[in-house]
Amino acid sequence: MLRPKPRTTIYDVADRAGVAISTVSRVLNNSSDVSEPTRLRVQRAIEELQFRPDRTAKTLAQKQTRSLAIAIPTFTTPFHTELMKGIRSRLQDQDTDLLLCDLGSKSHHTTLLNFLKRGAVDGLIVAGTPITEPIGAELLALRAPVVLIGSMLEEFDSFYWDDVSGSREAVRHLVSQGHKRIGMIVSQTESELLTRRIQGYKDALADGGIEFDESLVRAGRTKKHAGYSEEAGYEAMQELLGFSPPVTAVFASSDVQAIGAWKAIRDAGRRVPEDVALVGYDDIKTSHFIGLTSVDQNMHEVGERAIERLLERIADESIEDRVSEVIRPRLVVRETSLYSRA
Asked: Domain check: are 193 and 253 in the same one?
């Protein structure tokens, strides 16, 4: 269990570096009126003591609008867009600045650690990235309320999904339709999320008396969005279409992958669902209109609830109870999977 260290003050930094408090302040404000050796000595003391500026005091002193930050892998996928919509809808009547920390697709941890070390927000939501021990320590050092989405750590409020049950329900549905050759489209990047969804896929196959075939789990070549893209879904589906005996159903680990897979099926002269049944994951708005069976994660509501909890924490940091809520995904059956082979 991570435990917060006693609060470090600017006085502690000044004492460690052997300088005046005003010198520490100049270093924190990137003033040029500090010699380079002194600047390095102060910065070393800041790192050793894990000192983070007091955001609340700074805000009051400068009469600034409250600043909240969202750290997220990308803002361009439909999944993350729905999360952001939920967050923004709750902030419409709030006097806040919303800072966006784009973690990128390759170095989430480095980007987040660098962002946290700047210590310049009144509250933070971290979504869609695993919380390692170094990141957990930095979150505690931030000395501001933090809410996690998609991961769990007992020191913080968190909202996360039961991905095993979500994927299990999706594949159970396909098994109930009589399918025995069921492929799965995954991302290129290994993660706990991917591991859980593959586990749900395996569980559903086992429940239906179907042997797991590792060769039917495919990822596309395109690296954009870590493989959660239409292009990657198209490429993975092309591989699955080449198997003999053919797959008759496919479970994609995101809706955008499923949409790409759908095009690959059409381009091969086959039909959905008559030749290949298709199920996605996320239940983005587009899926409602095109009739894609999908697993609803209710991203908009999760975004609303996460930001609501963050605002509660900012208003009263003495709240002792931590929210640790598991979101149960729900399968929404539509046309792309409704062709029974039973």
From this structure: yes
> Tokens 């994951």 correspond to what residue?
281
- pLDDT value of residue 80: 85
In 3D, which of 215, 212, 193 has the Cα closest to residue 204? 212
Residue 342 covered by a domain? no
Q: What's the whole-model pTM score?
A: 0.76
Q: Are residues 97 and 219 in the same domain?
A: no
- Token digits for 258? 């499923």
d(CA 127, CA 295) in angstroms, rounded, equals 19
Residues 86 and 304: beta-carbon distance below 8 Å: yes
In 3-state terms, what secondary structure has residue 278? Answer: strand
- Cα–Cα distance measured from residue 76 to residue 7, given in angstroms and rounded to the nearest whole number: 37
Q: Is 180 helix (H, G, I), strand (E, B) or coil?
A: coil
pLDDT score recorded for residue 57: 45
Residues of the chain with pLDDT under 70: 1-7, 53-65, 105-108, 118-120, 342
Which among 66, 281, 245 is positioned nearest to 173, based on CA atoms?
Answer: 281
Task: State the amino acid at position 175 in one-letter form.
Answer: V
According to the model, what pLDDT value does residue 314 have? 85
Query: Which pair of tokens denotes residue 202?
Result: 């395996």
The reply to whether 194 and 130 lie within a common domain is: no
Beta bridge partners of 150: none
Could you tell me which residues are beta bridge partners of residue 125?
Answer: 70, 147
Angle at 254 between CA 253 and CA 259, to 5 degrees: 120
Q: Cα–Cα distance between 65 and 97 in angstroms, integer?
A: 7
Retrieve residue 323's tokens: 């929210």
- State residue 7's pLDDT score: 63
Asked, for residue 2, whether it belongs to a domain, the answer is no
Interaxial angle between packed helices 299-315 and 78-91, expressed in degrees from 0 to 180 and rounded to the nearest 10: 40
In terms of residue numbers, what domain contains 75?
Answer: 10-28+36-41+53-161+302-326
In a domain, 47, yes or no: no
